[in-house]
Specification:
alpha+beta; 2 domains; 5-stranded antiparallel β-sheet; 20 helices
Length: 514
């Protein structure tokens, strides 16, 4: 047991210098990190209203609400909510998520590579995967929480698909599905980028003469279950885009985010190219076809991040979906880290292994600078921004994106009456009443318990008419028919996952009784 735990303890110690700035006082200044605290607070407040799955965050966008989690990676906030409920502040919950993204991704890569090539290879691959300059940049400069967590799951998906291929066990099918679902819901863009690599891995055995078709089918079943589990997220995300301004908004100028000579070392670093070169020498010497393929994929993964790929970016869908060409470095980091393990398997002695890891760690630590700020948590929870770059998920009926804080939840547009509370109105004459939420499909307004028509077409808010008298107003965000269908598919897929787990458990019981 101690022998098995020792590499994990070493990895923990190796990762400590990287996560130490996260765990100390203050919050590191990044492009998006502060918004993650704001979003988690809004998630918490929205969850208390009974909305589930959480899609429309009700406290952001100046109090008018914003359907950001209908479109962008919800998993970090469900995990963050659990951490918060365990007693941590919203700020500390986000900081812990960033720290865990480094630590758990190191463990995940170690598990994958060590299972194939041994402890030394696993350690080097894990350290490179964690300290790769792009990974450090992603957290300490961009503050991309979803991307940081996504790196945990790719090694685990490949690891369990390997086990499905080799053992045909139900528990591995279920775990492969679970981690693929986690990837999709942790960052949908990285899931899109990583999925072709996962598909190539699944198809690879079919190129062999002694191909195992049954193993291939089970791997497909595992991935299909993962897709099914996340239907509650991706199907509404695609369908509901028609109700937003996203199609008419350009998030970023992609030409500014290619790999150029001035940022190549900053984002790629020297370790990954050295791993490719060393692997190439081994592949040539040993005529290793699999290694040649891995090297080729690593190099090809860089191509979409280079300026020569500009025509594809200009005339394709990548600017709206991927936004930043350098995001393809995520694949390069994964493949390059695996290649480093392949090199260590053949050439690594312990002194050399420790030296290599030390160099990787020092280079990684030198690739970033921490800009700490010491604002109280209320600085973040009190923000009323949409938490996205261009307010791209505003309802297409909203005419003015530059909203100000509403005077209250309800506003009388015409007629005479008194607003008693957020839910009670006394109408002296027929009233036109505005509930200060932006309209998005799923909103339902009840007056004295009965649904009423919402007039949203003119300005994009929840405008209703009420008759004379004292009335109780209740606005609630619910699932549309499309979302209900998506939720049902996810529940059925969860049933399939539990079936494989139960089947594996019963098989183990029968084996123990023999």
């Amino acid at each position: 047991m101690i022998k098995k735990l020792m590499p994990l303890l070493l990895l923990f110690l190796f990762t400590l210098p990287l996560i130490q700035p996260i765990l100390t006082a203050g919050f590191f200044r990044t492009d998006d990190g502060g918004f993650m605290i704001t979003r988690l607070f809004a998630f918490h407040e929205t969850l208390k209203t009974g909305q589930f799955p959480v899609r429309f965050l009700e406290t952001i966008n100046h109090g008018y609400g914003y359907p950001v989690l209908d479109f962008l990676y919800p998993l970090p906030f469900y995990i963050g909510e659990l951490i918060h409920l365990a007693g941590f502040s919203f700020m500390d919950s986000i900081k812990l998520l960033f720290a865990l993204s480094f630590l758990l991704s190191a463990f995940a890569m170690y598990r994958l590579v060590a299972s194939k090539w041994g402890v030394k290879a696993g350690l080097v691959s894990a350290v490179l995967y964690t300290y790769a300059p792009y990974r450090v940049f992603d957290v300490y400069k961009r503050g991309s929480l979803g991307e940081a967590l996504a790196f945990i799951f790719l090694p685990l998906i490949i690891y369990y698909l390997f086990r499905v291929r080799e053992k045909h066990r139900g528990v591995d099918i279920a775990l492969g599905a679970f981690f693929y679902a986690a990837l999709i819901t942790s960052h949908n863009v990285l899931a899109f980028i990583f999925t072709p690599l996962i598909v190539l891995f699944v198809l690879q055995p079919l190129t062999k003469k002694d191909r195992d078709v049954s193993g291939f089918v089970l791997e497909v079943v595992s991935l299909a279950l993962g897709v099914g589990l996340t239907t509650f997220f991706w199907l509404p995300a695609f369908y509901d885009l028609q109700y937003t301004r996203a199609a008419s908004v350009q998030i970023a100028e992609f030409k500014n985010y290619f790999l150029y000579p001035d940022n190549l070392n900053y984002l790629l670093g020297p370790a990954l190219p050295f791993a490719v070169l060393a692997a190439l020498l081994i592949a040539v010497k040993n005529h290793n076809r699999s290694l040649f393929i891995l090297i080729a994929l690593t190099i090809l993964s860089l191509v979409p991040a280079l300026p020569l790929f500009t025509p594809v970016w200009r005339y394709g869908f990548l600017p709206r979906l991927v936004q930043f060409p350098w995001r393809f470095l995520s694949v390069t980091v994964f493949l390059g880290s695996v290649l480093a393990g392949a090199v260590i398997k053949r050439w690594g002695k312990w002194p050399a292994v420790l030296l290599v890891m030390g160099i990787i760690i020092i280079n990684g630590l030198q690739s970033y600078k921490i800009d700490k700020i010491f604002y109280p948590e209320t600085y973040y929870t009190g923000k009323d921004d949409t938490t996205t770059v261009k307010n791209e998920y505003l309802s297409r009926w909203v005419k003015n994106e530059f909203l100000t804080l509403p005077p209250g939840k309800l506003t009388i547009l015409s007629g005479m009456g008194t607003i008693v509370s957020d839910r009670q109105v006394i109408a002296d004459t027929p009233l036109k009443l505005r509930i200060n939420r932006i309209y998005f499909p799923g909103w339902q307004v009840l007056v004295d318990g009965a649904p009423v028509n919402i007039r949203y077409e003119n300005e994009g808010f929840l405008d209703i008419s009420i008759p004379v008298g004292e009335h109780e107003i209740n606005a609630r965000f619910r699932e549309t028919p499309v979302r209900q269908l998506a939720d049902l598919v996810s529940l059925l897929s969860l049933g399939g996952l539990l079936f494989f787990l139960l089947k594996a458990y019963n098989k183990k019981l029968a084996k123990d009784e023999q």
